[in-house]
Write a structure and sequence with these properties.
With about 260 residues, the chain is mainly β. The protein is built from four helices and 20 strands.
Length: about 260
């Protein structure tokens, strides 16, 4: 099931994205309530192209994992870490499909990082590995946009990774998906930059949930970013960057100069 968060005629809600049997354009079946509890479909169906897709969730926090693909660690001159490198992106970093990534004043070098994002479906803490899948609502595409020059000069990554618009998410949440071996790709202006598979992750989704929840409570709508494959590169104003993940779809964002 693909669950999207949307805006139409000033109303924000959730809906199930469906492909009509006749092969026509996708439609959105608006739901009553929200997907983090039992819900019903309203029966009101609107063409997907008539709504504005929003970030699929509004997380209280985005917990991100660095250097979770060995080739990516090596391309930046880093060793594979003995324990997961964990950092946060604030809720104000989150932006949606089609929304601009705005170049921050603090940086002159932005990089794209295509990532599988895990959307948490219920409050959880100290989750055992065998129950990790139970706390997941689904998965979406993410771009861990990074001010690389700031990251290189500041030992804490809060500003380099947490500036406004640095966390595009979307286009929707896919709930019926095995995340263990999915193709993940990033293109800039249609040119392939990154191509990998989630099977290359050093630590899989279950391990990351165990590691994170050993220290903190995750809430419904919280997001885990699982790391990026090799091939990260520069973004410039005027670019269009797209993250595509097998079984989910494509998240596309323009890059704009500030002001």
């Amino acid at each position: 099931m693909r669950i999207a968060r949307f805006s139409i005629d000033g109303t924000v809600g959730f809906g199930v994205v469906e492909d009509p049997a006749d092969g026509g354009e996708p439609v959105l079946d608006i739901i009553k309530g929200h997907p983090f509890a039992a819900f019903e479909r309203s029966g009101r169906r609107v063409p997907l192209d008539q709504v504005r897709l929003l970030p699929p969730v509004l997380p209280s926090k985005v917990v991100a994992i660095g250097r979770n693909y060995a080739e990516h660690a090596r391309e930046l001159g880093n060793e594979v870490p003995e324990v997961p490198v964990t950092f946060f992106k604030p809720s104000t970093a989150v932006t949606g499909p089609g929304d601009p990534i705005v170049f921050p004043a603090i940086s002159s070098e932005l990089h794209h990082e295509a990532e599988l994002a895990v959307v948490i479906g219920r409050l959880c803490r100290e989750v055992p590995r065998e129950r990790a899948r139970e706390v997941i609502l689904g998965y979406t595409c993410a771009n861990d946009v990074t001010a690389r020059d700031v990251q290189q000069r500041e030992p804490q990554w809060a500003r380099a990774k947490g500036f406004d618009t640095s966390c595009p998410l979307g286009p929707w949440i896919e709930t019926d998906l095995d995340p263990s071996d999915l193709a993940i790709m990033c293109t800039v202006n249609g040119e392939q930059r990154q191509l990998g598979r989630t099977a290359q992750m050093i630590r899989d989704v279950e391990d990351l949930i165990v590691h994170i929840t050993a220290a903190m409570t995750l809430l419904p709508q919280d997001v885990i970013l699982t790391g990026t494959p090799a091939g990260v590169g520069v973004l410039r104003p005027g670019d269009e960057v797209a993250v595509t993940i097998e079984g989910i779809g494509t998240l596309t964002n323009p890059v704009r100069a500030r002001g």
